[in-house]
Amino acid sequence: MNKRLEGRTAVRPTIKAVAAAAGVSTAAVSQAVNGTGRISEATRRRVLDAATELGWSPSASATALRRARTRTIALVVRRPTDVLGSDPHFSELITGLEGELAPRGYGLLLHLVADIAQESALYERLVAEGRIDGAVLTDARADDPRPELLRGLGLPAVLLGSPDAASPVPRVGLGQQGAGIKEAVAHLLELGHRRVAYIAGPAELLHTRLRLHAFEEALAEAGLAPVAVRHSDFTERAAVDVTEELLALPGRPTALVFPNDSMAVCGIGTAQRAGLRVPGDLSVVGYDNLSLGRWVHPRLTTVDQQVQRVGAAAARTLLAGCGEDVPPPVLDGRPRLVVRESTGPLTPPT
Amino acid sequence: MNKRLEGRTAVRPTIKAVAAAAGVSTAAVSQAVNGTGRISEATRRRVLDAATELGWSPSASATALRRARTRTIALVVRRPTDVLGSDPHFSELITGLEGELAPRGYGLLLHLVADIAQESALYERLVAEGRIDGAVLTDARADDPRPELLRGLGLPAVLLGSPDAASPVPRVGLGQQGAGIKEAVAHLLELGHRRVAYIAGPAELLHTRLRLHAFEEALAEAGLAPVAVRHSDFTERAAVDVTEELLALPGRPTALVFPNDSMAVCGIGTAQRAGLRVPGDLSVVGYDNLSLGRWVHPRLTTVDQQVQRVGAAAARTLLAGCGEDVPPPVLDGRPRLVVRESTGPLTPPT
DNA sequence: ACCTGCTGGTACATCGATTAACCACCCCGG
DNA sequence: CCGGGGTGGTTAATCGATGTACCAGCAGGT
User: Fold this and answer.
1) I want to staple A134 with a disulfide (CB 3.0 to 4.6 A). Which of A286, A318, A328, B230 is the partner?
2) How far apart are CA A168 and CA A243, in angstroms?
3) How far is residue B131's CA from residue A153's CA, in Å, rounded to a whole number?
């Protein structure tokens, strides 16, 4: 209070201070706080009181050093395509993760990288420095080097994506990944569409393949083939370019299926600019069920895949891998189509 | 290689192993790596070689314990309104921060909280545990308790917002915060609009006040007053509700100014659904220059405030506060209007 | 009286790195 | 031949918490 020279940094109390205040040894404090060892209820209470009195929490660095546990999980986002910005995916994922991590004292370390090589190098550094206890891998790809890498590094990890496939690390995701797209195609067919085009994500991503496969299969079951299939990099720019190209096609598609909602919204804008009515002349389907889609005009028909719940499940799996005692994640359900206004039957010009 | 029982976790090398490999003491290794002490160039190289050979990096926990420095910065996001998801703000901010933090070995610890009380409690815990070296405070409010709190805790911090005001912690942001809105109003007036309404953010946020004030001032200079001013919570839902209300007003506004782009997009959708043409019957201005806005129909007129650059500047300021030797941030410029298609003169129905 | 067993603690080594204090050695001038 | 001053390291204490090994004291059985 009346210290003349208030230091730049307030000195934080250590376990010693608490021990002194409670009149016990530091070992006793440790045991009282962690519930280990043999400590009478009376002294335990005395210690805890002293701790709150002094505002003491065990130093994370010291505990981490001693226990070789940092209570930190890494989430690395690749951003050549600025997935973080354009894709609501990540905010929802983070929300889901945090909901499970925070209550258990775990933190989420966020990093951005340019490509998968940088990402791998980053994991190696983080592990070498002992900065993290686990990692969440997003955007599973074919021949993904990361699961093998992390297994080799001995770092617990989960890979987001279809839970079916075998993998060096656990996979967490809704089952029947293709179900949403199949539903979307069925919906379009029912509306009378026969010329449907598909805008896919980057070819190297696993879910791109799964969904594309589902799309083609669903069409094939009706004896149809896609008017066109284009791969994209998830950017809004690509959405516009591809849409323009597809709309210029002879035998123009009457329905477009996009790999995410922001692209779908841009696709709608592009179609409207070209003088087409949505859905009168063109139906559009998105993916992810971004909240924005509920309010644009026309409201977006899209696929919901409950990213937030997947995030929560991923966190639990990871915590279990870190030796934490958590209830096993339950993840039922599958991606589901949400029908709104951007899909409909073709209507003659008024 | 031929170990029978490969442990779950690969044993990471320590400084001792490196010392042994290089034939020196651990002190020498430390000095070689940190460039401190007196070490000959020859042994230094030998040590560094041994380190890379073994794939050793100093343990973050041990270093943190010794140096009382974690090389971690906290970013806490309040999400009653899911700012993370709806606002591109955060992705850009994170991008800007990471660009400066990562090259210096700093990490970004991300947390989500419900309200400012939880946020304060979180800072106290993070500091008590010594988990972070600094914090980025977003969404400055009137009577913000956080700067004072963090100063009291001795934690370096920066507050994003107008750099003018005095504050217990440095503030980083573009100057002339109101400039963008003033430009927007001037633009609307020039287009002939006289009935302009303003949808503001939450009243307690500082930038809400600044912008609102700029808005009212700019109108007043032309001898006008706002048709209406409504506060909102940044959600898309609110955008729709407020827009519907304003459009039902007697003496309906001919131009709407929104506090962010996703709300503006929703506002446009709402107007269109009500049968209004944008911009023929209603002009709409957003804020943030979200990339989506470039592609919707009509393309969104908005205000760009270079969040990414602000993020970079914030990171530098913070790093300097942590004793890091960084070039001082330069942050010139001011928010600027980006005119696109969602604003225009009123046009008679065709 | 003496051993056993239990309760409730304490002393000390340890995790991995940093750093102040110290020292061995060599060169050189006097 | 000896002292002074570099050079190039080493030794040992330390950061804060944890956990093993140990010990004091006491009750009870014989």
Assistant:
1) A318
2) 39
3) 24
